[in-house]
Amino acid sequence: MHEEGKQPQFMQEREYRKLFGLEIYLTPVFVISSIAIIVFIIGALVFQEGATKLFGDLRVWLTTNLDWLFMITTNLVFLFCLVVAFSPLGKVRLGGEDAKPEYSYLTWLAMIFAAGVGIGLLFFGVLEPVTYFQSPPLGVETAYDTETVYTAENVPDAANAKVKAAASLGIAATVFHWGLQGWAIYGVVGLALAFYAYNKGFPLLIRSAFYPIFGDRIWGWPGHIIDTFAIFAGIFGLATSLGLGVQQVTSGMEYLFGIPANGLTMVILIVIITSIALVSVMTGINVGIKRLSQFNIILAFVLLLAVILLGPTLYILRTLFTGLGTYVMKIVPLSNWIGREDTAFYHGWTTFYWAWWIAWAPFIGTFIARISKGRTVREFVLFVLLLPTLLCLIWFSAFGGTALHQFLTGGYTGVTEIVEAYKPEMALFKMFEGLPWTMFLSCIGMTLTIIFFVTSSDSGSLIIDIIAAGGKVDAPIPQRVFWCTAEGLVAIALLLGGGLKSLQAASLATGFPFAIVLLGMGICVWIGLSKEVKESR
User: Residues 130-143: pLDDT tens digits?
Assistant: First the structure.
């Protein structure tokens, strides 16, 4: 049996083998996951038409048949985080009583935020609030009519009660998808891994959290299966975000510079950005990833501040507070999955989002655990849940609020027309078109998307490499290169094999099995923390 406080026998006895310059840990995890991913890439590229149909059908089946599983899982992990934070378990310090944090609060937040949400904020920051304004969830009425051709003379009255309610709910529903419940998913994985790694001496692997259930069997097939699921979820969750990001950048390049936004451009862009990520991932977490994350936050703050100052500042501030109030009031009905009639919102958005968060959880959770030693459990949970949610609220109020204000008070229909035509990658640039300094803002937006692309890819590659290498944090550079390259190739395969629908289907498919793993991690960290508190008394 594992003796707490000492290095597990698994860590002492494991062996590695050199293969084409890669140092591979001798379990089925690396072999199975790498072969399966290579087969997927080849199959999706060779049979593009079949892949398009397969992914489209898979997305519909998963959202209509497993919606309840994603909703229940997300609600449970959110409630779990609240209970842990405000119970005696929250006093436990990750790493022991004498552990000190490795990073400042600002750097900690920058690394979490840049890895956790980056590209999504730019892709959906304008698209979602306007979409939900046009078609609000929960049966809320709106004065907007999708069959009407709007001009500056016939836009809905901004003072109309229906319009105000729909606009406020548009912000709140967006924050719902990017707020507390999503970050709770990351929080459970990060907390479980940090506790068992820093307080119990286990390797930083998903399987480590399951020691209370499986005991030493986590070093056998139960652990192999868990870590393999984690790698699949991480690779395809990352590929979804990278695919969205490259769609947005290529659309911006076509819009601003006339460069065609076709498959070839997307492939070239993915190759270039993946190459930049390779340089970052080779320098490690304390050089490339840390510095890029800090620069990312600075550039994101500059863009956010520019939109607030150049846009309708007072309206943005009002939207911030009304959106927060509506979010608090609507979080319960939005979290319900029984008797819903707004199936387009519930299946097309919420179910996909929860699967996407779950798919990202293995690598983001591991990454957060990697940088959170020295924090108390209460500090960890509240910081990971509250501050990123607040930042998301500010972001969507600024970007979504500006787009809504442009339409409701200025009659600018650039964004609403793009949303109706469902060209989501263009929404951000159309919003910039209605502001001064359009070219400047658009260039910053594209640059920020690229850097978010890089930070997601390099941090994801680092974490997936750790999982595949059996917890070894200093695996050789060629192995990191393999995983970083694999992410880019999967993104290419999904984009060419169905585009956005394929990206969403991949997240749903890999999020499903990891939802079960996520619930198990919550149970195991509760057992571990309870025992820790009991022993300290």
Answer: 999 999 999 898 88
